[in-house]
Amino acid sequence: MGRNSFGCRARAFTLTELLIVVGLIGLLASLLLPVLVKARAAANGAVCLTRLRQMGTAWAMYTAEHKGRLMEYIWFSPTTPDVAWNGYWPGVLDAYKVRGEAILCPSASEPIPHGQNKGYGNAAYAWTGKYLSSGTVVRFNAATYRESSYGYNRYLVAGGNFGAPWKQVDRISALNNPSNVPVFFDAAAIDARPVNGSPASPAEPPPDLRGQGITLGSPEHWKFLLARHGRAVNVGMADGSARRVPLEETYLLGWKADWVEYRLQLPAY
User: Fold this and answer.
1) Would the pTM count as exceeding 0.70?
2) Domain extent listing, the chain
3) Terminal-to-terminal C-alpha distance of the chain
4) How far from 148 is each of 54, 247, 251, CA to CA, in Å?
5) Is the pLDDT score of 1 beyond 50?
6) 42-56, 105-119, 224-238: the lowest-pLDDT one
């Protein structure tokens, strides 16, 4: 054994002491990890809300420049692919420089890595147009396609049946209580027209809240019943605001003029 500068004999750690130190470090890490996970989730949620507000601002600018008229819905125009590519909400937002990361939620920023459901995302992955046909809203050609974590309320298109049955609505002036009308929201696909149902005959719940069971034939509301921000999704409203909405409360929003509001009964996870 050597001596330190004060003439004292240096003593090495014993194996027992080292194991105690390692154990204490592991204990501290296990205590801190949930805190760090929650902090990261909160930060992702805050960024997501900011991006939804940005998207809402671009949407409002478009409607203002078009004298309040809602955008058209053109999904497929193969002979003139730019018509579909530029016409629906991703193209509209792109014209206002809202694109790329601005239409991705940090909690689902990576596109789904396979095409078994035609590029549908889920709670943890964004949707992608990679596996769909060229000449559509989400895929211009094989090399150019869009990816996003958000969807659009497809009742909010010109003639999209936002009004009462058989009443076509083309303008934003028809929206009552815009602070409760969803425009953009966390979703597994580009848009959704949820089926309403009623408290006595509610909408069918999904098999889980991870989005694992979503296919092309799934009910429209399953696209946004995703546990992406805890047991909730973030929603951008027609007045430009954005907020976190618990999944059970998504049907308390005013998806269309004659929407019947009620709380959903959903699976545990």
Assistant:
1) yes
2) 48-252
3) 60
4) 14, 20, 23
5) no
6) 105-119
